[in-house]
Design a protein that fits this description.
Strand content: 15-25%
Structural class: alpha/beta
Length: 280
């Protein structure tokens, strides 16, 4: 059986409404041979005649009448499907996932999510969290549509757009316990800074470890110890000040990432544009 072409159905319905192939072809803006071929293809597909031909015109056979009645549902469904497909390219709608570290999300997501969702009521955003290297892998492996990550490694499948820069270094409150270091040991930045022991000019006797940068900031602000923090997080705690300018630091690049082969729908483009134009 041949594949059914919706255009052949359209031609069939015009012929069925006029019962005159010449007039139907004229109304369709095609030649009569084109119309006749379309009807023959449908007759071949269904294995039966759809029209009886007469000198004065054509008449629907019993099969033709059945197709004319029930086939209309096919055409209506096809037109709806076609419109839905076209709308997906222009309508700002759909569900998209954004991955980021919780601390990165605290100072980036509120900047653009509220206006993005207010202006686009049919848009849905799902969030996931983890270390930047985990989020990067999620984007590469299609588990996240977007990532807002720190220092992403270049990959042939990734588009990387820088949003802002930041510095990680030592922060403390007045009268902090300088014997205690508070930090997240899983962060590569923390590992890098602590590897520069010859530049630190002091040794910590005790350490408090936490995976929450916000908790680290809160503990440091209370005077529990000296913290290793990104500046964007430290600025959320008014009492914290940069310890010294001569201490080791790590420069971070906060970037938006997504797959280079990702289909660029209207919604996808709006999300990228809103993030890139935000001031973090």
């Amino acid at each position: 059986m041949m594949d059914i072409n919706p255009i052949d159905f359209k031609y069939f319905y015009e012929a069925a409404s006029t019962l005159n192939l010449s007039r139907a072809a004229e109304r369709l803006g095609v030649g009569q041979p084109t119309l006749s071929q379309a009807i023959k293809r449908l007759e071949s597909t269904f294995g039966t005649k759809l029209f009886d031909r007469y000198k004065t015109g054509v008449r629907l056979t019993a099969a033709g009448k059945r197709l004319h009645t029930e086939g209309r549902l096919f055409l209506e469904h096809f037109e709806k499907l076609k419109n839905d497909v076209l709308s997906s390219e222009t309508l700002i709608a759909g569900s998209y996932s954004i991955g980021c570290h919780v601390s990165v999300g605290l100072y980036t997501l509120p900047v653009f999510l509220k206006p993005l969702m207010e202006l686009n009521p049919h848009l849905e955003i799902q969030l996931s969290h983890g270390l930047s290297r985990e989020i990067t892998e999620n984007v590469i492996s299609f588990r996240n549509d977007f990532g807002i990550v720190v220092n992403p490694v270049k990959h042939p499948d990734l588009v990387i757009k820088e949003l802002r820069q930041d510095n990680i270094t030592f922060w403390s409150a007045p009268h902090a316990n300088s014997d205690v270091l508070i930090y997240d040991p899983s962060l590569i930045q923390s590992q890098f800074i602590l590897s520069k022991k010859n530049q630190m000019k002091f040794n910590f006797k005790r350490r408090i470890e936490s995976s929450s940068l916000e908790l680290i900031g809160g503990l440091a602000e209370s005077g529990c110890g000296i913290a290793i923090l990104p500046e964007c997080v430290a600025k959320r705690f008014p009492k914290l000040k940069k310890l010294r300018d001569d201490l080791p630091k790590h420069e971070d690049h906060i970037c938006l990432i997504y797959r280079s082969d990702r289909k660029s729908s209207a919604a996808f483009r709006v999300i990228v544009d809103k993030i890139m134009k935000s001031k973090f």
